[in-house]
Amino acid sequence: MSWLFASIYDPFMRSAENACLSQWRAELLARAGGDVLEIGAGTGANLPFYLPAVRSLQLTEPDPDMLARLRRRMGLARAVKQVQASEAVIDALPFADAAFDTVVSTLVLCSVPDVSRALAEVRRVLRPGGHLLFLEHVAADDQPDRLAWQRRLEPLWTHVSGNCHLTRRTGALIRGAGFVVEQETRESMRKALPILRPSIRGVARRDA
Q1: Which of 75, 192, 78, 70 is nearest to 135 (CA)?
Q2: Which of 34, 64, 164, 170 has the fewest CB atoms within 10 Å distance of its CB?
Q3: CA distance 35 to 98
Q4: What CATH number is attached to the domain comprising 49?
Q5: Structural domain of residue 104, as residue ranges?
Q6: What is the pTM for the complete model shown?
Q7: Is 60 within 8 Å of 93 (Cβ atoms)?
Q8: In sequence order, what are the residues at sequence separation of 6 or more whose Cβ sits closer than 8 angstroms to the Cβ of residue 148?
Q9: Reduced to 3 states, what is the DSSP secondary structure of residue 200?
C-alpha cells in the first residue's frame, strides 16, 4: 500500500493546501532557523517555505515511496544551502542530543505508533530553548457529533491511510512531553475531509 498512498497523497491534499495549508505552512516555517530537523517530511510540501535563516535542513521520512518523492523535490528548498534526507524513524532518531535549533512536524504525529516516545526523541535532539513547530489534525473535542464519527471510522481509516489516527489529542501530548507551548491555534482545515478538519498549529519550546 505504500506506493499507492504516496502516489495519491498530494492530489488528496491539494484542495486543503490551496484553501489554507500552504498559508499555514508559510506562517509557521517563518519561525524556523538555525539547524532544522523536519520529521516525517512526506513528499516535501514544506520545502518551498524554508527561509534563509535556516542554516541546515535534515529531513526524515521512513516510508520508502514517500522518501523517493521527497528526494526528487529537495531542490525546492532553494533558500537553504545544506539539505539532506534520510529514512530515519521518528521514535529512534539517529542524531546527537541537542543537535537542532528547530524541529518541524506537520501532519505527522497522527501516524506515529507511539507519540510520547516520538516527542521524547524530538525533545532529546532539540537544544535547550529550541522550538518544535507543529501543525496536526486532532480529535474534534468541541464537536461531539464529529468526534463520534472520528471514533467510528478510525479503525478503518488507520488501515487505509498509513496508520493515521483521527482522535489524537496532540496538544496535550506535546505538553505532557515537557514542552512549553508558546502559541497554539485551533482552526478548521478547510476543504479537507470533515473527519480531518479539526487542527492545531503552533510553537512549543524545550526548556533547559
Answers
A1: 192
A2: 64
A3: 10
A4: 3.40.50.150
A5: 2-205
A6: 0.96
A7: yes
A8: none
A9: strand
